[in-house]
Design a protein that fits this description.
The protein has about 450 residues and is mainly alpha-helical. Helices cover about 60% and strands about 0% of the residues. A hairpin with a 4-residue loop joins strand 1 and strand 2.
C-alpha cells in the first residue's frame, strides 16, 4: 500500500466540499459524537451489569477512552511516518500525517463499537443463534452469502452498516463519514463466506452483502490491497492496527480496574499484575512508580495511578512495534495484532488476560447478564422476523400488530426478504440494554400497562 494514496477526504453520501474551520477528519469526530447511535452506547453493557451503585464502564465511556488512546497512537505514528518517509510522500501527505492522522484514529476508535448490539457479545451470539436454530424455516429465503451474514452476525460488519446505510426518510450516506475513517475500523475486510479462523483479516467479517458495493468503494478509495476477488477479501488498512491496539489496551486494563472497584479483584493482585506489565516494558520506571505508590494510600487511587502507567507503557510499546513492523503492515504480510506480538516478548499481558478470564469474565454477575441478554435478544427477533419476511397480503393480524412496534425508518416493505430482515436487525441492534429489556417484558406480558 502506498502512503500517498491510503487516505482521502471523500465521504459517503453527499460529499460536496464545504469551506469550514474544521478539517474533514475533525468533522468525522464531531459527527460521531453527536450521533444518536453513539449516544445510545451509554446504556449498552461493556462487561458488568448496568446500572449499579458503583460506576463502571459502558460502551460509550469505553469508546471515549479508546479514542483518547487512539489519538496518542495516531499522533506518534503520524510523526514517525512524516519523518521516516519524508522523501517519499507529497506535501499534502506530510500535512495529513503530521496534523490529521490522529483525528482519523480517534474518530475510528469512537465508532469501533457502534454496531454492537445490547448486552455485549451475548447479543451478537443471540442474533447468529436465532438464524442457526431456525435454519429449516428461513434459509431457503436467502442467498448463500446473505445467509452467511445472518448466521455469522458480527458487530464489526454492522458498524459499517450503521455508519453508511440510508434509512427510510433519511439522507444518503448514513453518518457521511470519510472513507479514511471507515477503512480504519475494518478489522476484517472480507465478506462472511470468506471468514477463516486463525487468519487475522478473516477471523470474522467486515460488511454485509447489502453494503458490499459501499465497502468496495471505501477500500479502493483508500488504497486497500485486494487479496481475493471472489469471495472478496482485502488486506487490512494500515490504520486499522492502531485502532485495534487502542481497543486492546483499554479493555484489557480498564476491565481490571472496574473489577477492582466492584471488589471482584483484590488490590494486591491488581497491583502486582499492573506492576509486572510496567516492569516488562520499562524496568527503569519501576523505582519512580514505587516511590509514588508510597505516597498514595487510597486503594482505588493506587489502581488508577497504575492503570495510567500501564496504558502509557502499552502506548509506547505499541508504537515501537508498529514502527518495527511497518514494512509488513504496508505490504499486507503482518499476521499478528500489535499486542499479540508483544505477548510473544513478555508474558505480563497474557497473564492479565488469563486472570481476567478466570476472575472477571466468568464472574457470576457477568454470566447472568450474558444469559439474560441472550434470551432477550433472541426473543425480540423471534417476535419480529417471522412477521417481516411475509408478504404484506399474507400477514395476519398478529403480524401487523408486531410490526407496529417497529419505527417506520426500519420497515422496507418494497425490498427483498434479506433487506427486510436487516431492517429488523437495525431496530433490534440499536436498542439499549434497558430498552430491549423493557420491550421484551412487554411483548411477553411480564409488564402490562401504558408507558410513554
Amino acid at each position: 500500500m502506498e502512503l500517498n494514496t491510503i487516505f482521502t477526504n471523500q465521504r459517503t453520501g453527499n460529499h460536496q466540499q464545504n469551506v469550514v474551520s474544521r478539517t474533514d477528519f475533525q468533522r468525522d469526530f464531531d459527527r460521531i459524537i453527536f450521533s444518536s447511535a453513539f449516544r445510545r452506547l451509554q446504556n449498552k453493557t461493556q462487561v458488568f451489569p448496568l446500572p449499579g451503585s458503583v460506576f463502571v464502564h459502558n460502551r460509550l465511556t469505553h469508546s471515549l477512552e479508546v479514542a483518547s488512546v487512539g489519538r496518542s497512537l495516531g499522533s506518534l505514528a503520524g510523526e514517525y511516518i512524516s519523518e521516516t518517509y519524508h522523501d517519499d510522500i507529497s506535501d499534502l501527505s506530510k500535512d495529513f500525517y503530521q496534523h490529521q492522522l490522529h483525528n482519523v484514529i480517534a474518530s475510528a476508535c469512537l465508532c469501533h463499537d457502534i454496531g454492537n448490539p445490547a448486552f455485549g457479545h451475548s447479543g451478537e451470539d443471540a442474533i447468529a443463534s436465532y438464524f442457526e436454530k431456525n435454519e429449516n424455516q428461513l434459509k431457503s429465503k436467502f442467498s448463500e452469502k446473505e445467509w452467511g451474514d445472518l448466521v455469522n452476525f458480527e458487530g464489526n460488519a454492522n458498524a459499517i452498516r450503521v455508519l453508511t446505510h440510508k434509512q427510510q426518510g433519511k439522507d444518503e450516506g448514513g453518518a457521511q463519514l470519510t472513507y479514511t475513517t471507515l477503512a480504519s475500523i475494518a478489522k476484517y475486510p472480507c465478506e462472511s463466506i470468506a471468514k477463516k479462523k486463525g487468519v487475522i483479516n478473516r477471523k470474522k467479517f467486515g460488511f454485509f452483502q447489502n453494503e458490499k458495493q459501499q465497502f468496495l468503494d471505501i477500500a479502493r478509495s483508500t488504497g486497500m490491497m485486494i487479496e481475493h476477488d471472489e469471495p472478496v477479501i482485502f488486506k487490512r488498512h494500515p490504520f486499522v492496527w492502531l485502532v485495534e491496539a487502542a481497543d486492546d489496551i483499554c479493555y484489557n486494563i480498564i476491565d481490571m480496574e472496574d473489577a477492582h472497584r466492584l471488589g471482584i479483584v483484590n488490590t494486591e493482585d491488581c497491583e502486582n499484575l499492573f506492576l509486572d506489565l510496567v516492569r516488562s516494558v520499562n524496568p527503569d520506571d519501576i523505582k519512580r512508580v514505587g516511590d509514588k505508590l508510597g505516597i498514595i494510600t487510597n486503594k482505588n487511587e493506587r489502581i488508577s495511578y497504575l492503570r495510567a502507567k500501564v496504558i502509557n507503557s502499552l502506548i509506547n510499546k505499541t508504537i515501537e512495534l508498529y514502527k518495527s513492523n511497518f514494512d509488513k503492515i504496508l505490504d499486507g504480510s503482518l499476521d499478528k495484532g500489535i499486542l499479540d506480538i508483544f505477548k510473544t516478548e513478555s508474558s505480563s499481558l497474557t497473564e492479565i488476560e488469563r486472570f481476567s478470564i478466570e476472575k472477571i469474565y466468568n464472574h457470576k454477575a457477568v454470566i447472568e447478564i450474558e444469559n439474560a441478554g441472550y434470551n432477550v435478544m433472541y426473543e425480540l427477533l423471534n417476535h419480529f422476523v417471522p412477521s417481516i419476511i411475509k408478504e404484506k397480503d399474507e400477514r395476519k393480524s398478529y403480524d401487523k400488530m408486531a410490526l407496529k412496534l417497529i419505527p417506520q425508518q426500519f420497515i422496507y416493505d418494497d425490498a427483498t426478504v434479506y433487506q427486510k430482515t436487516l431492517g429488523v436487525l437495525d431496530f433490534v441492534t440499536g436498542m439499549t440494554d434497558n430498552f430491549a429489556t423493557d420491550l421484551y417484558r412487554k411483548i411477553k406480558g411480564i409488564d402490562i400497562g401504558m408507558t410513554m
